[in-house]
Amino acid sequence: MAIATNRTRAGRPAPEPTLASSVLDRLRAEIVKGTLAPGTKLRLEHLAPSYGVGRTPLREACCRLAAEGLVTIEDQRGFRVAPVSAADLQDLTRTRQQVAQLALRSSIQRGNSVWEDQVTAALQRLVARGRQGVTRRLDDAWEHDHGLFHDALLSACDSPLLLRFHRQLFEQSERYRRLATAYGQPTRDVEGEHQALAAAALGRDAERACALVVEHISRTTDRVLECHPGLRRDELSTK
User: For 133, left (φ over 0), alpha (ψ -120 to 50), or beta?
Assistant: First the structure.
């Protein structure tokens, strides 16, 4: 998934970013990528010089990201990157599965030939990256096309609120997945999973498509818990 891009998810040119939106996109990207690690204190006076802005745009960005679940606000103590845990990941997974199914059913029901072309093109771009299996740290180009593919699948959904909520859940999930890639991941046919999901959606088989997206999300969570030692210890300690 590309965290910041100069194109909209529908492929149309995006408006020129404002200073506030640029700061927000960059800070979100650094949190999702793990550049700013979970629990990191966000000291505005230290971030301001590297971002080339004053504290006000950074404070506004932190407040926005707190609403998205990527930052926590500490009373009288500022901001901190949201922590991670196995319990949070599992809750996030269950919620995303439910939301994704609702949006996917709507998209399959309402999707027209333009939607079909968008899904097909997004899948072709993703496959062209040649990323069958996830055995090393993923690059930004693959992440960009990965996000576009999942967005294309849901793009015919008629609920903007549902799509915004899914986008937030997707980005929170991406943060966990990126953190886990630092420890390596076992071989997995991610390309095959995406192809099967697209085939079911384009074949208007909503039941199969929903079952596949639930399985796809579950497999990612299982791999994250397996690969990230801190989350694995957290999971075991709760049993």
Answer: left
**Residue range of the domain that includes 225:** 86-237
Domain count, the chain: 2
First to last CA, the chain: 33
Residue 99 lies in a domain: yes
55 in any annotated domain:
yes
Q: Is 155 helix (H, G, I), strand (E, B) or coil?
A: coil
Q: CA of 148: how far to CAs of 33, 104, 184, in Å? A: 17, 14, 24
Burial 8-31 (b: 16+ CB within 10 A, else e): ebeeeeeeeeeeebbbbbbbbbbb
Distance (Å, rounded) from C-alpha 172 to C-alpha 235?
18
Are the CB atoms for 200 and 212 separated by under 8 Å? Answer: yes
Q: Give the domain-ending residue among 29, 46, 81.
A: 81
Per-residue pLDDT of the chain (239 residues; tens, 9 = 90+): 344 443 444 444 555 567 888 999 999 999 999 899 999 999 999 999 999 999 999 999 999 999 999 999 987 779 999 999 999 999 999 999 999 999 999 999 999 999 999 999 999 999 987 654 444 445 778 888 999 999 999 999 999 999 999 999 999 999 998 888 777 655 688 889 999 999 999 999 999 999 999 999 999 999 899 888 777 655 434 44
